[in-house]
Amino acid sequence: MTAKQVDTAEVANGNESDEEVTELVRTHPTVKPTLIRLGVVLVVGLAVFGLLQASPGLLGSPDITSTAALVVVLLTLVLTVRFVVRTIILRRTTYLVTTDRVEQRYELLFRVHSKGVRFDKLRSHELTQNRVQSLLGFGTISLNRGLGPIRLENVDDPESVYRTIQQCSRGAE
């Protein structure tokens, strides 16, 4: 996490203010949970495929078992592609907290996707962590702006980022 000054490029991003905006937090989501899910999918898919190939009569007929093995391979392949794409998107995502707004941004295939909310437009915010997320040190911060939430998913050290958002939103009131 760094604190640095953001120059007049903010004007191009919708911040019409002449004030200088201070960057309070710049962070990237962790890919740990996605990689864990990818590993589970690969291990389970390959184990079921191996079991079906090793026992051709397991499901009654070798033809049915062979078809089931192909379905397992197809499902494993689809889920693997999904998790790889998700990992790529997470690697290219940046969460930015400045003195006046929170922004989520990623770039993929020459396309930039950016969502943000100013603190004076923020209605509510919350931090959620399940047991696994708490153990691994990440969480999700949801920001409600009235037009649907912005979710900062898989944030490393979410308590620190959330405290910064709380302080800035109190200052905007």
Secondary structure class reads alpha+beta
Order of helices and strands: EHEHHEEEEHEEH
Instruction: Tell me the strand order in the biggest sheet.
Output: 1-2-3-4-5
Distance between the termini: 25 Å
Dominant shape: elongated
Low-confidence stretches: 1-18
- Main sheet overview: 5 strands, antiparallel
Question: What does it look like?
Answer:
This protein has a 5-stranded antiparallel beta sheet. The protein has a 3-stranded antiparallel beta sheet with strand order 6-7-8. Helix content is 45%, strand content 30%. It is built from 5 helices and 8 strands; from the N terminus they run βαβααββββαββα. The chain is an alpha+beta fold and 173 residues long. The chain is elongated, with a radius of gyration of 22 Å.
Top keywords for this entry?
173 residues, alpha+beta, 5-stranded antiparallel β-sheet, 3-stranded antiparallel β-sheet, 45% helix, disordered N terminus
Topology diagram in text:
Blueprint: E1 4-6, H1 9-12, E2 21-27, H2 32-54, H3 62-91, E3 93-98, E4 101-108, E5 111-118, E6 124-128, H4 131-136, E7 138-144, E8 149-156, H5 158-172
Antiparallel strand pairs: 1-2, 2-3, 3-4, 4-5, 6-7, 7-8
Helix pairs in contact: 2-3
Overview in brief:
The chain has 173 residues and is an alpha+beta fold.
